[in-house]
Amino acid sequence: MNPITVRRYPRAPYSESCYVPPAPAAPQNRSLTSRVEQIHGVVNLLDHLPACANKSLRRFIADVFDKALLAAYSIPARVAWAPECCQSAEHSLLDWSLQMSKRARRYPALHAWERDVAAAAALVAPCGLAGYLHDHPDRDPALSLNSEECEEIVARRLVILDAPLRRLRSRDAECGSTLGAVLDVSGDEELDRQQVARITAAIGFMAIL
C-alpha cells in the first residue's frame, strides 16, 4: 500500500476504513480489559488524559478515536516494542499509550507549549499498530516487525490521522503542522525543526510505530 496514495483520500470512520473484524478471540483475563471497561468511549478517554491547555488538541483526540479504534487499543501490550514496565499481562496497548503520554508530557527538555503536543502524539502514534495487531490476532506479538508490516502500519496511521490533522490545522495551524511533522505524516519547511526534534525525542520510539 502506497502511503502517498492513502493520504489523498478523506478519512472514513476507522470502523469503515482500516478495521476488519478479527476471528473471535479467546476469553481474556478480566485484568486485561479493566482499563478498556473504564474507557468505553471517547469522553471517558478524555477524562483519563492529563489536563490539556490546548482545547484544539482535545478535539483532535476526539476526532481520531472512535469505538472501533478504542477496541483495537484494548489488545495486551506484551509485544516486542513495549518497554519492560508495560510487559505485564495486565497492561493493554491503551494503558501503555496513556503511560507514555504522561511520560512524554514530563520530558524535561520540552517548553511549556510543547507538552500538550507531545502527550497527544504519544497517545495517537500507535493507532496504525493497534489496528494492525487487532486485525491479525494470530500474529506472535513477540516478533519484531518486518518491512512489509511497517509499511502497512504507516499506511494505516496515515488514513486514520489525515482528516483529524487537517481539521486541527484549520483550528490551530502551528499546532497541527507541528504534530503532523512529529508523527511523520506531513511536512512543512517553515516549522521550527528544533521544536519538532524536542517533541519527537519526548515520545521516543513511539514516533516510528
Q: Could you characterize what this model shows?
A:
- The protein is an all-alpha fold and 209 residues long.
- The protein has 12 helices and no strands.
- It has helices at 3-6, 14-17, 34-38, 42-47, 55-64, 67-72, 93-105, 112-124, 127-135, 147-171, 173-182, 193-203.
- The longest helix has 25 residues, at 147-171.
- 41% of the residues are buried.
- Residues 1-37 have low confidence and may be disordered.
Number of helices: 12
Mean pLDDT: 76
The separation of the N and C termini measures 17 Å
Strand content: under 5%
Helix content: 55-70%
Structural class: mainly alpha
User: How many E-type strands?
Assistant: 0
Tell me the radius of gyration.
16 Å
* Low-pLDDT ranges: 1-37
| Shape, per Cα inertia axes | globular
Main beta sheet, described? none
* Topology as a string of helices (H) and strands (E): HHHHHHHHHHHH
Number of domains: 1
